[in-house]
Amino acid sequence: MSLPEPSYNDDVKSFAFTTVRDRWPKILNGAIGDLEEQVKKSPSNAETGNDIISKLRALLKAFQNDEIVAYFSEKEVSLNSSLSLYNAQLSKLNEKKKVTWLTGPWLFLECYLYALLNVYFISSPASFWHTYDVFNNLKNSTFQQSELGVVELCKRYRSLSEQLGEHKDEGTLKALFHEFADISLWGNATDLSLLAGSVSLEDIQSVQGEENRKKNEKNILVNDLDAAWKHLNNSKKERLDIVLDNAGFELFADLIFSLFALDSNLTKTVVLHCKSIPWFVSDVMPKDFLNLLGQLQDPNFFSKSHNSEDDNDALNAFVHELKRYYERGAIKVQTHPYWTLCNEYWTLPKATDLYNDLLKSDLVIFKGDLNYRKLTGDLLWNKTTAFSVAIQDLATSKLPILALRTCKADVVVGMPEGLDEKVAKEYSDMGKDGHFWPSSGKWAVVSFWLGYDV
Ligand code: F6P
Ligand code: MG
User: Fold this and answer.
1) Rg of the chain over all Cα atoms, to the nearest angstrom
2) Torsions phi, psi for 272 (to 5 deg)
3) Helix axes 286-297, 249-263, angle to 10 degrees
4) pTM here?
5) DSSP result, 49-75
6) Using CA atoms, how far apart are residues 6 and 380, in angstroms rounded to an integer?
7) Are 295 and 287 in contact, with CB atoms under 8 Å apart?
8) From CA 239, how far away is CA 331, in angstroms rounded?
9) Cα 79 from Cα 236, distance rounded (Å)
10) Residue 251 Cβ < 6 Å to ligand 1
11) Is 84 in contact with 77 (CB distance < 8 Å)?
12) Does ligand 1 lie within 6 Å of residue 35's CB atom?
């Protein structure tokens, strides 16, 4: 079977087109702003910091001039061996057409961009920059603005766990599974890289409230949660994996889901997979997990809630449970270089150490848009293509997969005939270009596949 083409950066009908011309420069300028502040604060690292700033400015020019994308040098590969896989992929793509910033394949180039940014930091002569997360301040300040949503969800968790204590019948558990999976799904609407576009913080916060979550249920265009529930409930209930997406509110929502799964004995362990380098602005690194724990306990971080007894109790109860599970190893935080490569997840069975580990899982949840793009290869599949077809080799990998994704890019699969047209009409009735509904962040897909044919 011949595969469809991927999204390309020069396709005006792709969200790639505006992302690379508008949002990438904003993200780089934001990073420059962060570094300028940091350089002022630590004069001893000013010179090396300014070097990184110059590289970022040169990269902005390379975008403007649509320069050819360069291979990573041997020295750079010696600092991060994963970069050799980027070079191999670049060489393959160059055989077809010389890859340039504004015309190359979107998924490859967007991953390459974050790998390149990381190279600027790890190759600095000053070790101060080697582990510096240029998006850390943005991650923290945005999470701080999620105070209302966080406290509301802590209270919801508290009341639902009380109910859970009383009724452990299957019907209640199933309803709660839906509720908590929904919380985790819409947590993905809090993508900090979207802040660089036209979506306001208010828009993002509006999907955090419970009321809005209910309203948003009709916006889940493909919903395989029942099948995922059936699978998980009949599984060994030993281990659940979450390939995380964004830090801050989304991570918090994923942790709420994790606590529910542990409290209700749907699993004994939750393994959280993080990125090992700063990635797509807001993705979770292990230190972001620890930061979140600290922030929830810090009276100055969510200061309003710490001044209200009820809010404070709800926050503390959540943190107490989270720490309890984490300290006894029921919640594990892991990283693997595979998650920051540029390839489709169809290659996962070839990353044998990671694959063999994931085979121990009863369910592997992939959060967010980028994970979905990698699951489906970011190819322009016909939207009625079955999810099991779009995930190619993963379909027979024996990994039970659940994708929880709000749509922020072109690719969508698994839709019934006619729905694409209906949603496009709905989006154009909002005064938008209907064709671009899949990248609006207003709709979501929940896709499940067992990992083998039945
Ligand atoms: O909105 C476009 C984008 O930057 C995509 O490049 C990427 O897939 C997505 O946002 C990141 O979203 P998420 O954090 O949900 O993976
Ligand atoms: Mg992300």
Assistant:
1) 22
2) -100, 125
3) 90
4) 0.95
5) HHHHHHHHHHHHHHHHTTPBPPPPPHH
6) 6
7) no
8) 10
9) 41
10) no
11) yes
12) no
C-alpha of residue 41 to centroid of ligand 1, in Å:
31
Classify strands 444-449 and 220-223 as parallel, antiparallel or unpaired. Answer: parallel
How far, rounded to the nearest angstrom, does the alpha carbon of residue 342 sit from its chain's CA centroid?
15
State which amino acid sits at residue 40.
K
Structure-block tokens of residue 82: 């994963």
Q: Which residues contact 386 (CB under 8 A, 6 or more apart)?
A: 413, 414
Ramachandran region, residue 66 (left: φ > 0; alpha: ψ -120 to 50; beta: rest): left
One-letter amino acid at 46 equals: A
CB burial readout 434-449, b (16+ within 10 A) else e: eebbbbbbbbbbbbbb
The H-or-E segment that residue 157 falls in is helix 147-166
CB-ligand 1 contact for 410 (6 Å cutoff): no
Taking only the tens of pLDDT, the chain with its 454 residues reads: 799 999 999 999 999 999 999 999 999 999 999 999 999 999 999 999 999 999 999 999 999 999 999 999 999 999 999 999 999 999 999 999 999 999 999 999 999 999 999 999 999 999 999 999 999 999 999 999 999 889 988 998 888 888 777 667 888 888 889 888 988 998 998 544 443 444 444 554 555 555 665 677 889 999 999 999 999 999 999 999 999 999 999 999 999 999 999 999 999 999 999 999 999 999 999 999 999 999 999 999 999 888 889 999 999 999 999 999 999 999 999 999 999 999 999 999 999 999 999 999 999 999 999 999 999 999 999 999 999 999 999 999 999 999 999 999 999 999 999 999 999 999 999 999 999 999 999 999 999 999 998 7
Cβ-contact 414, 448 below 8 angstroms: no
- Spatial distance between the Cα atoms of 342 and 116, rounded to a whole number of angstroms: 12
Say how far apart CA 402 and CA 243 lie, in whole Å: 10
CA angle 29, 34, 37 (to 5 degrees): 125
225 neighbors 448 (Cβ within 8 angstroms): yes
Confirm or reject: Cβ of 409 under 6 Å from ligand 1: yes
- C-alpha 127: how far from its chain's center? 28
The distance of Cα 336 from the centroid of its chain, to the nearest Å, equals 15
Only one residue has tokens 């724990």, namely 293
Q: Which of 339, 379, 408 to mutate to test the pocket of ligand 1 (most atoms within 8 A of CB)?
A: 408
